[in-house]
Amino acid sequence: MKKTTIGRKVFVVFNYTFLTLMALTCLLPILNQLAISFSSSGAATAGEVGIIPVNFTLDAYKYMASKAAFFDSLLVSFQRVFIAVPLSMLVSVLAAYALSKQNHEFAARKYYIWYFVIPMMFTGGLIPTYMIVRNTGLINSLGALVIPYLVNVFNVLLLMNFFRSIPKELEEAAQIDGAGHLRVLLSVILPVSAPVLATVTLFFIVNHWNSWFDGLIYMNSPEKYHLQTYLQTMVISRDLMAMESLRDVRTSGTISDATGKAAQIFLAALPILLIYPFLQKYFTTGIVMGSVKG
Amino acid sequence: MKKLVKLFKSVAVFTLAIVMSASLIGCAKPENTTKESSTKDNTTTTPSASSEEATAADGPFEKYPEPIIITSVKNLGAGSLDFPEGDSIENNVWTRKYKEDLNIDIDLLWTTNEQQYDQKLNIAITSNDLPDIMVVKNTQLKMMYENDQLMDMTEILPKYWADFTREVLEADGGDGLKSATFDGKLMAIPAVGTGLMSCKVLWVRTDWLEKLGLEAPKTVEDMLKVSDAFTNRDPDGNGVKDTFGLAVHKDLFDGGYASLEGFFNAYNAYPNIWIKKDNALAYGTIQPEAKTALAALQDLYAKGQIDPEFGVKDANKVNEEVGAGKFGMFFGDFWNMAWLNDVKVEHPEMEWIPIAIPSYDGSPAKAGKSFGTGSYIAINKNCKNPEAIVKMINLQLEKSYGATAEPTVYNITPEGYGPYAYAIPTGLEPGMKNFTAAEKVTEAIKTGDSSKLNAEEKNYYDMSMLAISGDYKNNNWHQLKMFGPDGSLTVINKYWADGNVVSDAFYGAPTETMAEKLSTLKKQTLTDFTAIIMGASIDDFDKFVTNWGNLGGKAMTDEVNAWYAEQ
Q: Which of A7, A48, B222, B251 has its C-alpha lying 20 to 30 A from B331's C-alpha?
């Protein structure tokens, strides 16, 4: 039995209060958007909506369902994630495996490490990156959203460090049984690396799902924007100085469309919200514990 | 085994060397390929023989014997652009018209929405990946001039413009054209506007006025009384003191909704524009009149007639609270009711009117007016047929607004499509068009005779009539508040007709110091003004003026006056 002193009780109470407040600050904005998306437009514009919908209506979702642009960009987003994430994982795991070897096994390792780390700290900048993408002919194709992001050095280092923490004896045992590098990677390293693989996969998914600026600069028409770029057009607060022409006013009806925006924000966040619970079970440590005896 | 390791070592080092050198080469290479591809593009787009022929037989509307291609980029506006069945951005009434009348094919390199157009265009300018023709802002124009990316239009424009185009482009007395002139050369075609659209009006909640038995304010004194009553006499009748007199957003100026330019104008101060003073140009924000206005604001704040939390609320947030019935008065642009239209549908008892800026000293207040031309049509230096762009502009203006105009086909269709937005370039219109429309719509509402209206005006008229009959939705009410009797456009038109306008006297491209320091100066202004309103000593204003000069304001004023001396 654990001893429960007064100090301990006070700590538990404070701890739970604090953590509950933290959780609420994360949860409330999402609930607020959800409530706005189910409220009437007038109530939303007047800011009357808290976390419970006012004048419940499905209008925003009906409107969304009629909007082809949203589903087009949703499709582009899924394509991007489904193509980019497996490719990125493949490239990253292979790089990380090589880099995880000891110096005496892989002589040029430290030079390669530098080669990877330098671009992690210094990027080429926006315009040179754009020009490379343009001159390699990737512009306006899905390739522009996939290929430049294949290697994420941070993720490679994460994988590498995990691979290095795996007891050497596992690999040696496999080698004694005649396994080559590929066999070691596939049959020994990867099966015990589920936590880091899940983490890095999630990082890649979230990165690809949430990035918007690349879609804007590499794609030549709004139909090819993926979801976040499309959402940015919808949600960004407009440069009001530009509203000096009546023509802008003609389209300004869309501005007060707070409910539509909320519905789109919520739908865009939904896939990521759904992925977390599925990957959660892999976030367990200690898998390799006990695999090496004495 | 050792041998193998050694071999592996050397292979590894070798590959590393290759990878590194490849990345270095990669850095150098793109420049060359760009040049090659761009020159190649130009030669393929325009056979030189046809362009020579074209220059031989010439008029403002002359058709090219051989088809030519003009490349462009397009801003699709804030939402998505709608097209009639079967049409698209590549194939619509305007692209067909360009082909049929001028034999010009349009090739759009990219399209994007309003919110992202600037960013994408900046990247195109910086990486020199430009179409033949594009719509740019004055800062971008200056950047392109410095990069030597612009076509000199000094001779081409006057040679090819139609009379009506000339009339539109010179409607502001030639200031717009002057603003596109660098070192004596015309480097772009200005999308000439009037700037009158930037004049502010005072929006007042009339159902509150009636409830409290007040009149719409005519003088500053009246305005302060109304503000006091809206704060202290419970205009919403809920028994709680939860309302304020004047709505203000956190940036004080700019934005056109609940901003303070109009308030300062009432005190004869003209923030953020250059005014003529003693034969020279002076910056309105630092004049002594601004101090008087600030003192008045400080007083309002101290009396609780300005939201104590205004410093953290942006225009959108303020609008929410206006919609929730917290404010009964604010200065803003003619279009402000667009943001309250949905609220009006839900709360029809809410009613607003636009009124002229109240007068301080007995004579009517003058409204500050910014320079009207905000965007320019820039033509790429490498464009083979720059005159084609002038012809396209001729055609666009003529068919939309000229003597042979067909506005229902090319401007706004009866079905509600807006072909004006399909035209290349977009954004040209006769400056006073909206004021003429407001006059005609008001007249038609009074007489009930809508036969004199063109299609666009008829649309405004129909919407206004629906609003009058109580159908406020779909922005009907907002149209009535702009075009209807005593609408905001009528109020602004009256400033102009009575000569009660103070125009921004500087309309050149941003000067060096301006480009560098203006945003810092504006930030400084915001910080100091906010502090004064919230209770700092009013004499801090004098410190602010000194500070402003030292932070680059003096250098900027000198540059602006050097420019003024040249005019």
A: A48
Q: What is the pTM of this model?
A: 0.71
Chain position carrying tokens 């704040």 = B301
Residue type present at position B398: E
As a whole-number percent, the residues of chain A with pLDDT over 70 amount to 86
Two tokens, residue B160:
């090819």
- Which pLDDT band holds residue A10 (cuts at 50, 70, 90)? very high
Question: Which residues are CB-neighbours of B536 under 8 A, at least 6 positions away?
Answer: none
pLDDT tens for B423-433 read 888 878 887 88
| Domains within chain A, CATH numbers bracketed | 6-57 (no CATH), 67-280 (1.10.3720.10)
Q: B199-368+503-566 sits in which CATH class?
A: alpha beta
| Region B106-111 average pLDDT | 92
**If residue B525 lies in a helix (H) or strand (E), which one and from where to where?**
helix B512-533
Mutate: best of A247, A257, A259, A264, partner B, most B CBs <10 A: A247
List, in sequence order, every residue forming a beta bridge with B105; answer none if it has no partner: B69
- Is B195 exposed, middle or buried (CB count within 10 Å of its CB: 0-12, 13-18, 19+)? buried
A244 and B343 in contact by Cβ < 8 A? Answer: no
The alpha-carbon gap from A45 to the nearest alpha carbon of chain B, in Å, equals 6
- Under CATH, what is the fold of the domain B48-195+373-422? D-Maltodextrin-Binding Protein; domain 2 (3.40.190)
The pLDDT tens digits of the residues spanning B236-283 come to 888 888 999 999 999 999 878 999 999 999 999 999 999 998 889 999
ipTM for the predicted complex comes to: 0.73
Using a CB-CB cut-off of 8 Å, the residues of chain A touching B126 are 127
Q: Which residues does residue B376 pair with via DSSP β-bridges, in sequence order? A: B136, B190
What is the rounded distance in angstroms from the CA atom of residue B86 to the CA atom of residue B68? 24
Percentage of chain A beyond pLDDT 90 is: 27
Ranges for all domains in chain B classified under CATH 3.40.190.10: 48-195+373-422, 199-368+503-566
